[in-house]
Amino acid sequence: MTTTPQDLPYDVFARACPSRGTLEHVTGRWGALTLGALHEGSLRFSELRRRVDGVSEKMLSQTLHALERDGLVHREAQPTNPPRVDYELTPLGHEVATRLLGLIHFVEGRMDEVLAARGRYDEARGTL
Q: Which of 39, 91, 93, 126 could share a disulfide with 72, CB 3.0–4.6 Å?
């Protein structure tokens, strides 16, 4: 059975819809990269920060909290000294990350076309 937008109880285009916040968490720069990195497997915070090159500690922490709250990431703290915290995708997070990675791979595969389009745009507007 196919689900149509009219059948869904949520509408991301509606200002007050809670799905809009989750979409922002998933598609924001750090959310998408964090989900993509965790698709590879469980990572510690420092490993995740190295994998998502350029993210600050503060932004990664905020991103992980938002994704955990949305049920996409599971945080597991080990009672060791020093404490060990691992992050991994939940089943829902894994499904979201798989879809995101499809888009990421598509974009990566078409970057020659994107770069050529940028060059034409900049050249036409004299913004080189």
A: 93
